[in-house]
């Protein structure tokens, strides 16, 4: 039996990725770009923090994952889409959810309270 990722077409994956990018990007309309700047280009969403740190959320179509690279913390996360809940969850089974992870990291590192 194929996994959810294997059953998902690339077009479906790209639509789901765009939806989560749009949801994240919309929250930064009210955030001072001097605190965090959000940019979407070429399939990646980049958050640039006040200290110059860059976090990159990128699409990985072959494996149907979103990858979040947080170089300033020396950490990378890989998220699979879970159709039943409509959430992006880490592929290590630790229960880390993409949007909650971003909220937590932004609060910890940038001292910003952003709700997705």
Q: Which word captures the global form?
A: globular
Strand order of the largest sheet: 1-2-3-4-5-6
Low-confidence stretches: none
Order of helices and strands: HHEEEEEEH
> What is the multimeric organization of the chains shown?
single chain
CATH topology: Metal Transport, Frataxin, Chain A
First-to-last CA distance: 33 Å
| CATH class term | Alpha Beta
- Fraction in helix: 25-40%
The helix-and-strand class reads alpha+beta
What kind of sheet is the major sheet?
A: 6 strands, antiparallel
Portion in beta strands: 25-35%
The overall average pLDDT, rounded, is 92
CATH evolutionary superfamily: Frataxin/CyaY
List the helices and strands and how they pair.
Blueprint: H1 4-7, H2 10-27, E1 36-41, E2 44-49, E3 54-60, E4 65-70, E5 75-82, E6 87-90, H3 98-110
Antiparallel strand pairs: 1-2, 2-3, 3-4, 4-5, 5-6
Give a nutshell description of this structure:
This protein has 116 residues and is an alpha+beta fold. The protein contains 3 helices and 6 strands; from the N terminus they run ααββββββα.
Tell me about this structure.
With 116 residues, the protein is an alpha+beta fold. The chain has one domain (4-110): 2-Layer Sandwich (Metal Transport, Frataxin, Chain A), CATH 3.30.920.10. The chain contains three helices and six strands. The protein has helices at 4-7, 10-27, 98-110; strands spanning 36-41, 44-49, 54-60, 65-70, 75-82, 87-90. The protein is globular and about 40 Å long. The relative contact order is 0.16. The model has no long low-confidence stretch (mean pLDDT 92).
């Amino acid at each position: 039996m194929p996994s959810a990722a294997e059953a998902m077409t690339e077009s479906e994956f790209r639509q789901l990725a765009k939806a989560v990018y749009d949801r994240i990007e919309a929250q930064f309309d009210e955030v001072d770009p001097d605190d965090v700047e959000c940019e979407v280009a070429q399939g990646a969403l980049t958050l640039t923090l006040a200290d110059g740190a860059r976090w990159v959320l990128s699409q990985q179509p072959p494996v149907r994952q979103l990858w979040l690279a947080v170089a300033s913390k020396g950490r990378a996360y890989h998220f699979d889409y879970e159709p039943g809940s409509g959430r992006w969850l880490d592929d290590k089974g630790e229960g880390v959810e993409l949007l909650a992870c971003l909220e937590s990291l932004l609060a910890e590192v940038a001292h910003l309270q952003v709700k997705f």
